[in-house]
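Dear colleagues,

As part of the handover before I leave the project, I'm documenting each prediction I ran so the next person doesn't have to rerun anything. This entry is a single chain, and its sequence is reproduced below.
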Amino acid sequence: MPRTPLVVTALCLTALFSEAAAAAPRIIGGEDAPTGVYPFMVSIQVPAVGDTPRQQHLCGGTLISPSWVLTAAHCMGVTVDLAVVRVGQTNLGRDEGVVHRIAEIHSHPDYREGGPDVALLRLEQPVSGIQPVQLLGLDGTAFEQDQRRTWDGR
């Protein structure tokens, strides 16, 4: 059997499924969060890579104190002079929220060796007017609900 038809078929199927996957939403059955419900969620952005918040968005983060943001270490392949934290960005299609410069990035020291995928960002100026999310208490029960942990404590 000639290999050419098999290769062409495989390429066509790959293109078909790639196009379908690109058009499919990343979150199935999700819905937009109402504005202001999760004010502690932030957008970590790199202004140099685009003109709009959608193009600049790198990762999400959580405000855990007025001056600290918790995020994933795999997002921190940037330096403090390239990235900013935008607080109050509820729609990446609009230019909204307040930009805060990052003073320090602290990725978990064992992240590159398979350790925890966690990083802390210290902001140059504290965020005001927003209640940061409460972290788990020492007993680990601050956010448990029916044996599940939730981001917002509900």
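Strands lie at 41-45, 57-65, 68-71, 84-87, 98-107, 119-123, 144-145, 148-149. Confidence is low (pLDDT under 50) at residues 1-23, 143-154.

All the best with the project,
I.
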